[in-house]
Specification:
This protein is mostly beta strands. The chain is built from 1 helix and 8 strands; from the N terminus they run ββββββαββ. Strand 7 and strand 8 form a beta hairpin.
Length: about 130
């Protein structure tokens, strides 16, 4: 059996990254996905006739090279496709309360919208300008 998660959504805030244990780079970001709202087995529609959407937030963690790429090129609002695995954690906080956490450990992050360059501007090149 496999533990596989595939999510397509928008990045909620600029990824945050740091080095841990002097050699492992970790970048984290939140990802928003949407799905239709259902009630009694039917899709809920608003007054305008459009489907009502519910947003779910996912914690994404990327390591090493992938983490550095995500940190450098991904920004809030970008559309990405994340492939990875679901990871569950439990711990006891300082007050003795057991806490739980769920995150996606990313194996790949595909850009579905244009990446930002180092100055934060969108890359406006046309496809025929790409040298390959």
């Amino acid at each position: 059996m496999q533990n596989i998660a595939i999510l397509a959504g928008r990045i909620g805030q600029d990824p945050e990254g740091n080095t841990v244990d002097n050699d492992t780079y970790v970048a984290r970001f939140s990802l928003a996905t949407s799905r239709p709202r259902y009630k009694n087995g039917k899709v809920v529609r608003g007054k305008d006739g459009y489907r009502v959407q519910d947003t779910e937030w996912h914690r994404i963690t990327c390591f090493n090279g992938l983490g550095k790429t995500v940190q450098e090129y991904c920004t809030k609002g970008m559309s990405v496709l994340v492939r990875g695995r679901i990871h569950y954690s439990t711990w006891t906080d300082k007050d003795g309360v057991e806490r739980y956490s769920t995150e996606i450990i990313a194996e790949t992050v595909d850009f579905l919208s244009r990446a930002k360059d180092a100055e934060g501007a969108a890359d406006d090149r046309q496809d025929d300008d790409i040298p390959f």
